[in-house]
Structure formats: C-alpha cells, structure tokens
Amino acid sequence: MNCKIKEFPIAIEIIIAGFDEKDLFSGNIDARKIKQTANEYGFSSQTDYAKTGKGADLLSIKSNRNDLAHGYKSFAEVGKDKTADELLEIKKKTVSYLREILQNIEQYLSNKEYLGSSTTGTP
Question: How far is CA 79 from CA 41, 48, 60, in A?
Fold first, then answer.
C-alpha cells in the first residue's frame, strides 16, 4: 500500500509551512523525537504496535543512514545482518508508523485540537 501525499493534504501542508526541518529534526528523526514533538505540539504519537512496532526501527534506520552518509560503514556492512524479507518487514513497519503519525496529525488538525480547552470556555 503506497502512502500518497493527497491522503494527508492538511498535515503535509502544515508540516511544510510550519516546521523548519533543520531546526526541528536536523535531518535525523526517530520515534523518540516524534513522540517528543507530538507531546510538544499536542498530537497523538500512539500507533498500532502490531503494524508499526511503534517506530522502533527508525532508530536503526537513522543510525545506519548516518553511518553510510559519513562513510563509517559500507552498504555491505549495514546489510549483512538482515535478510531481504527482514528489510521488507522493517520498511513495512516504518511506512505504517509514519502513515499513522500523519493520520494522527490530520485528526489533530481536523478536530482543531490545537485550539485547546481555552476556546471552549473550560479551564
């Protein structure tokens, strides 16, 4: 199942317009940083563990990407411990995780949760 940008137009536009990725993530992102950002902005970071592994694979992806980008490891070194099926499963879980996070952001925006309780008159 491909994630199409048109599925999350509001979330994508807000992310593009509102966040300077260099300030927010510095090119590196993992589930811990997503959770921290969700807490800061108020959207949910909850996902279906069975489908997403709660983004646990993002840390490995980030670390391997950095090692490859800086020349610390070769593709052969990074890939030697994973089978093709394992890599496909990591990809599937990671895409599912990011898709669910985008859905959480879409819901947050659609429900105007960013307005908080101050607009409803409750303390």
Answer: 36, 27, 12
Phi, psi of 12 (to 5 degrees): -65, -45
CA distances from 116 to 15, 17, 19, 26, 37 (A): 19, 21, 20, 28, 17
Detail the DSSP E strand segments found in 14-122.
none
Can you tell me the distance from the alpha carbon of 118 to that of 123, in angstroms, rounded to the nearest whole number? 6
Note the pTM of the prediction, 2 decimals: 0.72
Provide the residue ranges of all domains of the chain, joining segments of one domain with +: 19-119
Show pLDDT as tens, one digit a residue, over the chain (123 residues): 444 445 556 666 666 655 555 555 566 788 999 999 999 889 999 999 999 999 999 999 999 999 999 999 999 999 898 999 999 999 999 999 999 999 999 999 888 888 875 444 343
